[in-house]
Design goal:
about 450 residues; binds zinc ion; 13 helices
């Protein structure tokens, strides 16, 4: 039995059903699970983490990413382009990736997430050039120790048949489905507390066929795994749907089996009132990516309206090529700010944005065992040191997103310390950065 005692926290934002905030209390962890919260807990032989200057939150949950893209941050030709132009710049570079690029960029992105408080992340890998496999990203997640929900993405409509990606980056649809079955059978763990769960995720309605969207949904239901894609990201995306399919994105999703509690869509910037109602009724989830939406000029997702309708919303940093940062606590702050731009200063509080980033994301990913600090839930916990410059003078340090640190002091995943005193404890991070920069230099040529 392994026990850890987080002692005397300045504040604990539990994100429990009553959203209780505790002051001066402790958290006892036993074998990766939260055993108790309370004042003056003691545990003989437990490792003690002193939390007197810290705000303690559930680990943040990232519901949308393309980890492979950390190798193509701030590429000059894509810095100021809209979505489709940006993709056209980057596709030829991504076509030169292989297993080492996919693995190293994933490790880099995961380390960046961990330092910004993330304990559980999904990933959307939709291209597999030169022998790269989903397994390469799973190896990276296991190495750093984050809880991981990778999705087997795909593109099948190349340039020669009217699609956006070059033909060299698309796969045959039968191969895509066979590999999805392979990775689910090899890695998916449906049990409570699972460290790896696999989903199925054709890239977007504009890069795969109608048949693949439908077959992916059938396969996901058969295997009892989740479904993920990009939807209604910007005006061009909606125009493509109207021109190619004769309907809006929400209708397209509904027709092909892409609604339900086992589905979550990235972006949804352009959902209209009917589509919001559809997603709320069907318990379909949304991954909100405010920085990416700002970066690509896509617009402001109607998150206030979604939340008011009861729609389940999580937060995503999106790929590093369209952010270009992957800092999840800053993403939460951006979510709060962006709703205020659209709807006024009372549109979203710091605490609500943090809830979306924790409990909200866990629920979108089908993980009610994560995202809240409650006995019986997994010990995925972030400790934020509020004794530093970022919070100095704050009247309410628990309002982390208004004035708080942008990196964690400590991070625990399944009770294991992944970040200790501000450093990744499970990796030789300088070596990872060196390898990442070497690969990026080789790609630049
Ligand atoms: Zn994306």
């Amino acid at each position: 039995m392994t026990e850890i005692l987080i002692r005397n926290a300045l504040a604990i934002l539990t994100m429990d059903d009553a959203r209780r905030e505790l002051a001066g209390e402790d958290i006892l962890i036993r074998d990766g699970v939260i055993a108790a919260l309370g004042r003056g807990l003691s545990a003989e032989g437990a490792e003690v983490i002193e939390a007197s200057g810290c705000v303690v939150t559930p680990g943040l949950v990232n519901t949308h990413h393309h980890l492979y893209q950390t190798l193509t941050r701030a590429v000059p030709g894509g810095q100021d382009a809209l979505l489709f132009g940006w993709l056209k710049t980057l596709y030829p570079i991504w076509a030169r990736f292989g297993p080492e690029e996919v693995y190293t960029s994933a490790l880099t992105g995961l380390a960046e997430l961990a330092l910004s408080g993330c304990t559980l992340t999904s990933d959307h890998l939709y291209l597999y050039p030169n022998g790269a496999r989903l397994d390469d990203t799973i190896a990276a997640a296991q190495e750093i120790g984050l809880r991981f929900q990778p999705t087997r993405g795909a593109m099948s409509i190349g340039e020669s048949v009217g699609g956006l990606p070059p033909d060299s980056l698309v796969e045959r649809e039968a191969d895509i489905l066979n590999d999805a079955i392979r990775v689910i059978d090899a890695h998916h763990d449906a049990s409570e507390g699972a460290m790896v769960r696999v989903g199925i995720a054709p890239c977007s309605p504009f890069s795969v066929s109608r048949e693949l969207m439908r077959d992916a949904a059938l396969l996901a239901r058969d295997k009892r795994v989740m479904l993920h894609t990009h939807l209604a990201e910007n005006d061009e995306d909606v125009a493509y749907s109207l021109a190619s399919f004769g309907c809006r994105p929400g209708q397209y999703a509904e027709d092909l089996g892409w609604t339900g509690a086992d589905v979550w869509h990235a972006h949804c910037v352009k959902l209209d009132a009917q589509e919001i109602d559809l997603f709320a009724r069907t318990r379909t989830g949304v991954a909100h990516c405010p920085c990416s939406n700002c970066r690509l000029g896509s617009g402001i997702a109607p998150i206030r309206a979604m939340r008011d309708a009861g729609l389940r919303v999580g937060l995503g940093v999106d790929g590093s090529a369209s952010n270009d940062s992957g800092n999840l606590i800053l993403e939460a702050r951006q979510a709060m700010l962006l709703q205020r731009v659209a709807r006024g200063a009372d549109a979203m509080s710091a605490r609500e944005a943090l809830e979306i980033a924790t409990r909200g994301g866990a629920d979108v990913l089908g993980r009610p065992d994560c995202g809240r600090l409650v006995p019986g839930k997994r010990a995925d916990i972030a400790l934020w040191d509020v004794t530093g410059i970022d919070s100095a003078g704050s009247w309410d340090p628990a309002a982390l997103l208004l004035a708080g640190p942008v990196r964690v002091k400590h991070l625990l995943v399944e009770g294991r310390q992944v970040v200790r005193d501000g450093h990744v404890a499970t990796l030789d991070l300088p070596r990872v950065i060196e390898r990442q920069n070497r690969l990026a230099a080789a790609l630049r040529g």
